[in-house]
C-alpha cells in the first residue's frame, strides 16, 4: 500500500482501483481543523448517501439541460462543489494529438495557474496517471509521499496554498478531451475513496454533456452554413410545417414582396400563400408528396411555378420552390417527344405527387400497368426514380406536344 493510502472501509476494492460503493447507511465522518494561514476553522463532514445522491442528481440535471460547451462549463462550476467539496476547481481542454492545453477555466488564483503551466504540468504524476489510465486518481494514491512532495505539481500547488490534488479524465466519443481538477489546502482533508467515486461520476456526466454540446454546436454550424448556401440560390425557397407556418425563407423569398408568406391588409392570403396552404392541406389529408401550381403576378405579369415537396414523414415539414418562368406562359408540364402520349400522362401525374394507386385510378389502368409505364419512362429519360423524374421535368426548358393536364393539379 502506498504511503498515505488507506484501505476501503467497506466491501472489496474494485479491480480499477476504486472502492465498492457501500450501503445507503453510510457513516458520517467529521473532520475539524484550523487553517494556519488565516485562522479559519474548517468543519469537514462527509454527507450521507442520500444527500450525495441528491447532489449528483442536481449535477447531472444541470449538465443535461446545457446545450453549448459554454453552458456545460457554467453548469459544471455551478454545481460541482456539491459533489466534490474542494478549495479549487479546474477544467482543462487538451489537444487530441499533442496533449497541449487548448483552453482552461479554473476557480483558483492566477499565480498558481502560471506556476503550474511553467513547471508543474511537465512534472505532475497525477496528470500522467490520468492520461495513461483514463480514470480518476488523487495525489495520495498516485505515488509515494516523497515523490509527490518533490514534484513540480506539488510545488505549484503550494504557490496557491494547496496541498492535495485530484484529477479525472473527460473522454468524448473515445477521444481524450480534457481533465477536471480539484485541489484542497493543508487545512482541508485529503481526498478519499468516496471522492474518487464522485470524481468518476462527475467525469462521466461531463463527458456525456460535452459530447451532446459538440453535436449541438456542429448541427448549428451546419444549419448556418446551409442557410448561407440557400441564400445564394436564385429560386425562392420556403420551408414550412404542415400547418403552413413558415420555418425558413431564403433571401430571394424575403426580398420579393409578392412572395412573402403573410396575409395582406384585407386578411386574404396572397397567391403564393394560398398555393402553400393548399399543398399542406393535401399533404395532410391525401398523403400527397408533391404539389404544383402555376401563378401569375397581376401587377408585374411575372409567371412562376410554385412546387411544394413534403419532407420525410417524421419531419412534418415541407419545402416549396418558386421557379421564375419569365414572360412565357406555362400552362402545361414540359414533355418530351421520346415519350408516348400515355407515358406523358403518367409522367405528369407523377410530377403532381400522386401515388401509384392514385395514378392508376386517375388513368383508369391497373397499378401494374402504371409501374410498367414508369419503367419505360425511366429508361427513356435516363432517370432512376420518381424524384429524379420530377426534377428533370421541371428543370427541362423544352415543352412537348400532346395531351397533358394543367399544372395546377
From TrEMBL:
Supply the SUPFAM superfamilies for this chain. Answer: C-terminal effector domain of the bipartite response regulators, GAF domain-like
Q: Which domain of life is it from?
A: Bacteria
- Where the record annotates domain HTH luxR-type, the positions are 332-397
Name a single GO biological process: regulation of DNA-templated transcription
Q: What keywords is this UniProt entry annotated with?
A: DNA-binding, Transcription, Transcription regulation
Give any GO molecular function from the UniProt entry.
Answer: DNA binding
What PANTHER family does this protein map onto? DNA-BINDING TRANSCRIPTIONAL ACTIVATOR DEVR_DOSR
Q: What is this protein called?
A: GAF domain-containing protein
Organism of origin is Phytoactinopolyspora mesophila
